[in-house]
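Extended Data, panel c. Modelled sequence:
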Amino acid sequence: MKNGQFVIAVYVDNKFGVLSRVTSMFTRRGFNIDALTVGETEHPEFSRITITMSGDSTDKAQMISQLRKLVNVKKVELLESDTSVRRELMLIKISNDPAVRQDALNAVEIFRAKIIDYTPVALCIECTGEPSKIDAFIETLKPCGIIEMCRTGIVALERGGGSLMDSE
């Protein structure tokens, strides 16, 4: 299998130092994390780490196996694109230039984004969706003059009624 991007959901104890142990495992093995999001789950004693990384099927299998060996890891699951919902949030600040303002406002409407701050010199816009939508929105706004942007990385859930912790 060629290199591709994959998403791994990891339930861990919600304790000091756990994230550091998980990320250092990637470093020790020479893998790069493309994106990482972390937050408390529906069970306050657990955090969910969503890791996006690139690699082949061997890399994927190795990372899942190594994650499962860590003491504070409770559950590890590969989230396939066809059986999960994936979203990303981006905040982007663009110039509020009258020459391209209408183009920016049209893009906001077409991409179902939202202007969250408006000043005479800049617009701050929030956009959520699939990573490909975020990429397309960035490309559309480049002619408007991007000042700054920040992306959260992917958050993902399996489709259906159960939670990752229910499947233990």
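The two ends are 29 Å apart (CA to CA). This feature is highlighted in the accompanying rendering.
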